[in-house]
Specification:
The complex is a heterotrimer of chains A (1026), B (111) and C (224).
Chain A lengths: L20 E10 L2 E7 L3 H7 L6 E2 L6 E2 L12 E4 L7 E5 L9 E5 L12 H5 L1 H4 L4 H5 L4 H15 L14 E12 L3 H12 L4 E4 L15 E2 L2 E2 H13 L4 E4 L2 E7 L3 E7 L19 E13 L3 E3 L12 E3 H11 L6 E6 L5 H9 L3 E7 L7 H8 L4 E3 L1 E8 L6 E10 L4 E2 L4 E4 L2 E5 L2 E3 L2 H5 L4 E4 L4 E4 L9 E3 L9 H18 L39 E3 L4 E2 H9 L5 H8 L12 H12 L3 H4 L13 H5 L16 H6 L3 E5 L2 E6 L3 E2 L2 E2 L2 H14 L1 E5 L4 E6 L3 H8 L12 E7 L5 E11 L2 E6 L4 H14 L7 E4 L4 E7 L3 H6 L16 E6 L2 E6 L8 E7 L3 H12 L4 E3 L2 H10 L41 H4 L4 E8 L11 E2 L13 E9 L4 E9 L8 E5 L5 E7 L14
Parallel strand pairs in A: 1-7, 8-9, 8-15, 9-12, 15-29, 17-25, 18-19, 18-25, 19-20, 36-46
Antiparallel strand pairs in A: 1-2, 3-4, 5-6, 5-7, 10-11, 13-14, 14-15, 16-26, 21-22, 22-23, 22-24, 27-28, 30-31, 32-33, 34-35, 36-42, 37-40, 37-41, 38-39, 39-40, 42-45, 43-44, 44-45, 47-50, 47-52, 48-49, 49-50, 51-52
Helix pairs in contact in A: 6-7, 6-12, 8-9, 9-10, 13-15, 19-24
Chain B lengths: L2 E4 L4 E4 L4 E5 L13 H9 L7 E7 L7 E7 L5 E6 L27
Antiparallel strand pairs in B: 1-2, 3-4, 4-5, 5-6
Chain C lengths: L14 E3 L17 E6 L3 E7 L1 H12 L10 E3 L3 E7 L2 E6 L4 H12 L4 E5 L4 E7 L3 H8 L14 E6 L2 E7 L4 E7 H14 L5 E4 L4 E3 L13
Parallel strand pairs in C: 2-12
Antiparallel strand pairs in C: 1-13, 2-8, 3-6, 3-7, 4-5, 5-6, 8-11, 9-10, 10-11
Helix pairs in contact in C: 1-2
Classes of the chains: A alpha+beta (1026), B mainly beta (111), C alpha+beta (224).
The complex binds zinc ion.
The site of zinc ion (ZN) has 7 residues of chain B, from loops.
Amino acid sequence: MSASSQTFRLAPKAGLGGEIDRDKPLRFTFNGKSYQGYAGDTLASALLANGVDVVNRSFKYSRPRGVVAAGAEEPNAIVQLGASEAAQVPNVRATQQALYEGLSARGTNGWPDAQRDMMSLVGKFGGPFMPVGFYYKTFKAPASLWMTYEKYIRKAAGLGRAPGESDPDIYDHMNRHCEVLVVGAGPAGLMAALTAAAGGVRVILCDEQETFGGSLRDRDETIDGLPAPEWARQTIERLAAMANVTLLPRTTANGYHDHNFVTLHERRTEHLGDTAPMVDGRRRSRSRLHRVRARHVVLASGAHERPLVYAGNDVPGNLLAGAVSSYIRRYAVMPGRRLVLSVTNDHAYRAALDWQAAGGEVVAIADARANPDGELVERARAAGIRVIAGSAVIEATSDRKGHRVNGARVAAIDIEGFRLSGEAEVLACDTIASSGGYSPVAHLAAHTGIRPVWRDDILGFVPGQAVDPVKGFSVVGGAAGVYALPALLEGAAVKVTQALAADGIHVDASEPPAVESIREGEAIGLYHVPHDKPTMRAPKQFVDLQNDVTAAAIELATIEGFESIEHVKRYTAMGFGTDQGKLGNINGMAIAARCLGQTIPETGTTVFRPNYTPVNFGAIVGRHCKELFEPERYTAMHQWHVAHGAKFEDVGQWKRPWYYPQRVNGKLESMHEAVARECLAVREKVGVLDASTLGKIDIQGPDAREFLGRIYTNGWEKLAVGKARYGLMCKDDGMVMDDGVTTCLGDNHFLMTTTTGGAAAILEWLEIWHQTEWPELEVYFTSVTDHWATMTLTGPEARNLLAELTDVDLDRDSFKFMEWREGVVAGVPARIYRISFTGELSFEINVQANYAMQVWESLFAHGNKYGLTPYGTETMHVLRAEKGFIIVGQDTDGSMTPEDLGMHWCVGYKKPYSWIGKRALTRSDTRREDRKQLVGLKPLEADVVLEEGAQIVFDPKQAIPMRMVGHVTSSYYSPTLERGFALAVVKGGHKRLGERVYLPMADGKTHAAEIVSPIFYDPQGSRQNV
Amino acid sequence: MFHIYCPYCAEYREEEEFHPRGQAHIARPADPEATSDDAWGDYLFFRDNPRGVHHELWVHAVGCRKFFNITRDTRSYAILETYRMGERPTVTANGPEAVPSATATLTGALA
Amino acid sequence: MSKVVQFDPHPAQAAATQSPLHHVAAKPAVGETGVTLTERAFLDHLIVRGEPGVLAGAVEAVLGLELPTQPQRLARNETGSLQWLSPDEWLLIVAGGEGFRLQRELREALGEAHFSIVDVGGGQTLLELSGKHAVEVLMKSTVYDVDPRHFPVGKGVTSVFAKATAVIRRVDESRWELVVRRSFADYCLRWLLDAGEEYGIAHQPTQPAVASHRQTVTDTETVS
Ligand SMILES: [Zn+2]
């Protein structure tokens, strides 16, 4: 493919194509066909240069569509990018995508493909068959079928697709803080950044385009004696040299959140290739989300040109006037040969002047104003261009397939009367450019809840005042409706100076640059061009090209009774999705207003929401994915567990050994086999559990004991130094929230343990009561969870094994159950707690975590002869359940009182202080006798292991829906008892011991079980006391 | 994403460092046993949900771990002030006299 | 029996110690080194809590450091570093083995006053980050403003670090310290190596130690 195939590329000429490099040709493919463009092109400019008219099919009617705009507001040229499956990126605007060598893109819509578009049939006959609200009316009933319809509609409508393979690229986030964030690097943004930078504060300037400069890139004026594009270049260079300024091109401010928090999406390598290139063998992120907290946000996002709404305005060859200028000036691309321009303002005349200067034919300018008289109008007339005052293009005609404009019907119009005031004239042309004025880009301001307000003088909405004015927010330039260059530059400088002055930062107000300005005549409002037929019968007049919303649809919505603009939006889909109403909203609202007989401000506008343009998931996720998705917390023995084949269970963020499958006769044990082996080892010999994850809180202070008495349900007054006690904690509603053993280390010194999952929450719980209710109590809490490594040695041989390694007297009479001792274990200073969660003789060894492995490995070095077996959380669960020990969060769910759990023994009703939870335990609801209470369940068939969560009924023969009276909370197979057993909650269960209950299962089976005591093993507790 | 001035750290910090803990100035009744079931139920379960000025309890969880109060406008999300435990708000919906009395300046907690 | 017990965690005889990151091998940067990550393990870390008026005198006498009472301040001398964490909470980091003696001296100096000192040395480790791109790596990791203009030498904060938390300190013009919890250390290290890749990050682990850190006392007597 040679450069000459770029038939719409203009020959080199000064002032044309300043942003492309003709020495760097690039090859790319679109819809499978190969083309050539130049470095500096966007995909859109390169497609136009190659004469590609149809870039997409429309969303609903499947009509052929071409490029309309030159920036983020593009509604049609939305493509699927990526040469390989893994590199697929949906919803890319061709107008924002820089061309690179080998770029491969497809139009987003059209199924099964662009050539054989199934939906075009609907499009052709779409008028009567797909009215507004079509989806709601047709497919929503019956509701059950929507799922089926949706699959095909979505596919056919083509909203882009996610890659089917893993993304090879990486993405990241960067947190930034600055005094001034300037959004948009057009004239106002550059001026704002220059001013702020002079104050010495940190400035971030971002712009979504490849190149900074905004409208200066296409302007004729001179600034300080320099052509506008050159002034922009020099200003950008000055800013780039300043240490306090960060420039972010290719970066869209997508969300403006509370308190001046702005998310910027920087496309770091999207202009370089399908995947991010390596730099010196190192990966870098493809795109980056900057999370910016700014003291001041300066919105300099400019304005979007409004297209005119006329019949056939969606046929390829219909463009925005400003886009025509941009393509000619920036990329030396003239997207046609013969132009008809339809305008309501002077500014848009540039399109015709640029067109003619580039060698194209300007057939006519239809100006809706009766007496246009600005400087540009005069220039056009002087250049011999025909200006038809008081008229507009009322309809674009096209070739048979609708692939390209072939004429414009121009007629005199009566705007007030919404009718034609003369006969239509047909002008042959291939391009129609239109401009209905300019809409300030108020999207970002709206994200924070600032309602846009209408201004008659500029015929547009500008950001209004918030309910409570957001501190540090200003709008400058086109976004504020200021379009004239001198006023815009001065205004930006003044606003930033004032904003900084409020912070006590003085900026020397240097002279604003001298600007040679152009006198412009007044613009006129025209939101819907009348046609010779009534709107409902006229050829389609599109308001929102991306969502295929027509003027007729809006009219129909108002006829059907939708009066609120928010309802009209939802009924018609106007401004939905990735479009966010950039081109169509104002016209749509104005049409609704006219139909409702209201003014535009009375009708109001809809609210724009983040994100301004689509952000890829990668950028949102950043590096919080794959192995860095969530923190994994490791104990000091973690690597040993890994080396010994442990399977892990996630408990909160902790990785805990679940069980340790062994290879038996060359075959790895199943979980059931491993757990059975581990259980029996503990019951018959000795096992060891890594219990380091239990929460541990060091409590010091003269009031520590008093504090414990208030926070726990049971008594702590008499707990002697050297002893430990199990404690239960409730919320003030009387419901159990945590439990654990707390040890008295000294009179003013306790060590509290919490559940693994509750550690952080319990520390905060202690602090909230101390800080907010009882600040007079002298006590401090400090987390020591990570400091101690904890090894639970349990089983009949535990004492014999430990005795080999410690100087502590382990004799049953000198070191009793529920006591602790300090000593040395395997050469390491340790605290040993004689507590048991298995019902067996147990010693919990605690050492500073850095020394844990010395102790752990010594246990195994000596443990072989005692049959020492490491066990995991599953075995722990079986063993504790056999003893009827609860797990908070498994056997409780925030609705269980201590008495529901049968733990009356752990409730100190006589304690002097009304401890947390006590009062609620005497409320009528907590005294009910039919509360769900914890019991044991013994399945009648010994080999049945009930399902955890299974519902319980008293009468299995009752009709469905049955009356459910409880559920299974814990259920296991006990290798010791050689049967299944369970813990459950049952209404009034404590008085139902011996009764039979039933568990109907989803597969039709019904299990029967007997209510028994929850303590299945060693009810006297003799084994832990030996 | 709020930007919250911690009155203890004496600087603005990002919302990720904080946990909200509900309405502020909910005092635990001084004598629970003498409190009626209804009053206890109110203390446990009932909270205001105003449109406008609201006082909230927050904790600088990833930071100094101190609890403090925020006066916030629930319409605009503007934080009107932050103040320490034991202090009283200067901004209220109905002026300072509407703030709960001295016993309630310590903020009760129920998660 | 005393009212508060002190516990010397360090063995009297040589014992094997493992840092929380003992399992991660050294790794040079790919290409030019822009950031260097070094673990400083086996230091003694103590949490000191109390009212400033109660603590200041004893801290000055025992540590030779003025108690930093301004938020976010970090004081340092040859004994160690003392960082403000909260109006009534400080982090003291000293050489491995020094913690027990210093705690005892502080307790003696403070007498019957209400305070708390807790050894947390096994529960956290210190990572040092240096090099010309250290700040950018931190910007990718924490929501706190680490711009050197806002974060002068001698400042320290507790903040969010990736999805975990860290104490972040700036000890001199080019060096930063992160104090991370033991259980999160592996996650934080993997995060840093990933975030630092584009700048060229080198990782230097602490050498496995077989040492006795017990330098002062051999008994485990308790003091009040
Ligand atoms: Zn704080």
